[in-house]
Amino acid sequence: MVSEEVASKLVRFLYFVGAGMICTKGINLWRDYEHKAAMKAAAEAPETPVEMVNGGVPKS
């Protein structure tokens, strides 16, 4: 009887841990996707020179 209770609690705990791992993996995949999309958008955007306060453009 006690072993059945322990087994059911262990199974529920393992389900909980598994669900947490799946959610974490999904969140990390989404963050990687967003990061890659931002990097791609930044690479495709034309570079414009940054103006200084006095209106000049800094030399590279």
Structure description:
This protein is an all-alpha fold. The chain is built from one helix and no strands. The longest helix is centred in the middle third of the chain and has 43 residues, at 2-44. The relative contact order is 0.06. The model has no long low-confidence stretch (mean pLDDT 85).
Secondary structure elements and pairings:
Elements: H1 2-44
Round the mean pLDDT to the nearest integer and report it: 85
Q: Uncertain spans, ≥5 residues at pLDDT below 50?
A: none
- Tell me the number of helical segments per DSSP (H or I, 4 or more residues long): 1
- What structural category arises from helix and sheet content? mainly alpha
Number of strands: 0
User: Radius of gyration from the CA trace?
Assistant: 26 Å
Give the overall silhouette: rod-shaped
Pattern of helices and strands: H
In angstroms, what separates the terminal alpha carbons? 77 Å
- Please give the share of residues in helix: over 70%
Biggest sheet overview: none
- SS strand fraction: under 5%
Which key terms come to mind for this protein?
72% helix, 1 helix, 0% strand, 60 residues, mainly alpha
Question: In a nutshell, what does this entry contain?
Answer:
With 60 residues, the protein is mainly α. Helices cover 72% and strands 0% of the residues.
